[in-house]
Amino acid sequence: MKAARQQAIVDLLINHKSLTTEALATRLNVSKETIRRDLSELQTQGKVLRNHGRAKYIHRENQDSGDPFHIRLKSHYAHKADIAR
Q1: Model-level pTM?
Q2: Among 8, 20, 48, 84, who pairs with 42 as Cys (CB 3.0-4.6 Å)?
Q3: Domains of the chain with CATH codes
């Protein structure tokens, strides 16, 4: 339920670029506090940006896997070494 609601928030923000917390709460039929909590989590995940009662979707061209840098650095090491040659 929470994941579906958060995905609905992201979908709404993709379509509308920016919405107020009140508009999101009305559209999803939940409290503004629920929207604030969801937006806080989505901001932590890097999906939205919150600003003075509004939220907007962050479009990222190249989304990483979410793994820490030191893990990504070691992934596909042989392939990266071949490219460097």
Answers
A1: 0.69
A2: 48
A3: 1-85 (1.10.10.10)
Q: Which of these, 26, 11, 17, lies nearest to 55 by C-alpha position?
A: 17
The 10s digit of each residue's pLDDT in 54-71 is 999 987 655 555 667 777
- Picking from 47, 41, 43, 39, the residue whose alpha carbon sits closest to that of residue 20 is 39
Q: How many CB atoms lie within 10 A of CB 76?
A: 11
Give tens-digit pLDDT for 5-58: 999 999 999 999 899 999 999 999 999 999 999 999 999 998 999 998 999 998
